[in-house]
Amino acid sequence: MPINLEKERLEILKRYRKLLRTAKPFLKDDDAKQIKKAFLISAEAHKDMRRKSGEPYIYHPLAVAQICVEEIGLGTTSIISALLHDVVEDTDTTLADIEKDFGPKIASIIDGLTKISGTFEYGTSQQAENFRKMLLTLSDDIRVILIKLADRLHNMRTLSSMAKEKQLKIASETIYLYAPLAHRLGLNAIKTELEDLGLKYTEPEAFKEIANKLSVNKRNRESFVDHFIRPIKKSLDELHLNYTIKGRPKSIYSIYNKIKSSNTPFDKIYDLFAVRVVIDVPLEREKADCWEVYSIVTDHYRPNPSRLKDWVSTPKSNGYESLHTTVMSLPYGNDKEGRWVEVQIRTKRMDEIAEKGVAAHFKYKGTDTRTSQAFESWLSQVREALETNDKSQSAVELVDDIKNSLYHEEVFVFTPKGKLVVLQVGSTALDFAFEIHSEVGAKCIGAKVGGKLVPLSHKLSNGDQIEILTSSKQKPSEDWLRIVTTTKAKARIKDFIKEENKSHVIKGRDMIEHRLKILGYPSLTLEITNQLRAYYNAKDANDLFYRFGKGYVAIEQLKHWKSDKEMHERKQAEKAIQVPIVDNKSFTKEMKRVQHDRKDADILLIGEDMDKVDYTLAKCCNPISGDDVFGFVTINEGIKIHRTNCPNSPELLSRHGDRVIKAQWASQIAMSFVVDLVIRGIDRVGLVNDVTRVISDELKVNITALNIGVKDGLFEGRISLMIQDTDHLVALVGELERVAGVIEVAREE
User: Fold this and answer.
1) Which entry of 250, 441, 516, 694 is 20 to 30 Å from 140 by CA?
2) Each residue of 636-678: pLDDT tens digit?
3) E strand or H helix at 634, and its extent?
4) Helices and strands in the chain: count of H runs, count of E runs
5) DSSP class of 521
6) Annotated active-site positions, please?
7) Strands (E), 293-428
8) Is 709 exposed, middle or buried (0-12, 13-18, 19+ CB in 10 A)?
């Protein structure tokens, strides 16, 4: 299709002018001139570049800048940074050039947004290193994270033009890291859209099914909401409050998670939407008026006392404030019974913070100390974890620690003097001790909760008042890492035991080097260290040395590693590929060599390439012919084939994208696979006989294991079967669902 350059030029100007119009209310002095300068530099730098969709590349930085202004509420510095965010990475422009034109602040932000180049030690993750680099800028400028989220949101919105394996990798990384980050920064609308778009590409069938059902139910839902809010509106009008009230469906991703976690079909999920009341009142009346609206709602509908959430009195640590209650509606339409409806009550200020998160939080900073303190508390925890992080902890571990602090509910507890302390749900008395002070945590021997003595591992509940007991003889141990939940406590415990561990690490390394020389290896190379680390499932090299130095692993065990290594090398020597495959680049290179530049040489054909490549089917998800799959290059066990919806796939795809290779089933594959099915239903006499008859007699499928249990008239069974492919599986599931009494048949995840 021919490119109309003039039409594209006019479209670029149109998008640029829209950006200026959106930003106009807060532009000062020569802001517009600086934005124009950044736009012209970006347009010139990207003039010969196009996106995968075929569009001019400049559309992307313009869109990212538009999201920053319109959807996050950022200002001039962020607009300029967003327009230039890919210039250093993709063109000859340097950070020094940016600093000369726009100053050190914008150069620093763009440095945080620019991916790390260079080589990485095998076994590390470039994605994790990039994520760490970006998080480190939290200490200086949180706008780096916000612009990166805008960048990721636009990439997700335009992901359809990418290759399928790229879609899967980017979508998995988005769900694993970026959606939780948006959640923690209070960007609710962006978090929801990232999750939904992530699901669209990782579980397309499930996404489509839920989206279609929501669309079909839309008119009934709107009619129900109108009926539900009518009496509330009447009472609010009588009070002459300035308010808006609306119903909105839950996100597709949250509905999908509820279906999956509770085994509840879509038709049985009643809280598919929430009603939100937003009032516009002065700051000093916010709390009182929110409770007055709550009183009105509960005058009309019966509340569920266990579902009242008061984040107005105590905001969440990301600054979120709102009053949530769940009430029982009256029967309406075809419903013979009422249904539970969540009602959210908040002010206009609270609503802006809930939707635009941290940007709105800084806009209102100083007007509400509780919100500021809560958010600053979390930021300081992240900074602390980043600043205390040492080289012995890999980027992958650090990212995991940070991620664990992103998505969590909170528990509100008190010191003996009544000071409020906010921790994540699941926190223990030991977490609380480290939250008070590192030295208090290190000397902690127990605690009193409500005057009663409890152990270090005691999990805290809302309202607990805790007194920490200490001893000068106490010192942290590795077991404590299994007790604590918070990033801060984990970091402090690691710091305390690191010094003690140093001697064991040195001793272990010396022992390994000495024994390797006896076994015929002249030195402990990086390659051998990585092989040993994988063989003994150690987190890193220091962990490996420590285990040997401490005596957890006997030095005699190295002879077993040597024999297993030699056996693996003999097996590998039988394959056509002789060079070790360490990532997708080395895989493609070797496959092209042995396949003589076969057109699809970068794809592993399962069933055909067994004689060339060492690969196995992953046991965590048991892929079968017909499943969407990918290959993952392990450190010590060759290539593992995983299903794209494997429980481990988000982590593998988002942390180690450079070790993911394309894989598909050979067209003429003739193999049998073990598949585990879960069958649930209502028990009756002869049910097991009917199920096994359908499987063995009618469908001629071999059963390898069968276990069925009955409780209170309901049964649940797990059956392992030999299946040829997904079509065979679908046919089998269809037949089993026709058996009288069987309600649900599902492949076990």
Assistant:
1) 441
2) 677 899 998 888 888 888 777 778 888 888 876 667 888 889 8
3) none
4) 31, 20
5) -
6) 89-90
7) 302-303, 309-310, 323-328, 340-347, 410-414, 420-424
8) exposed
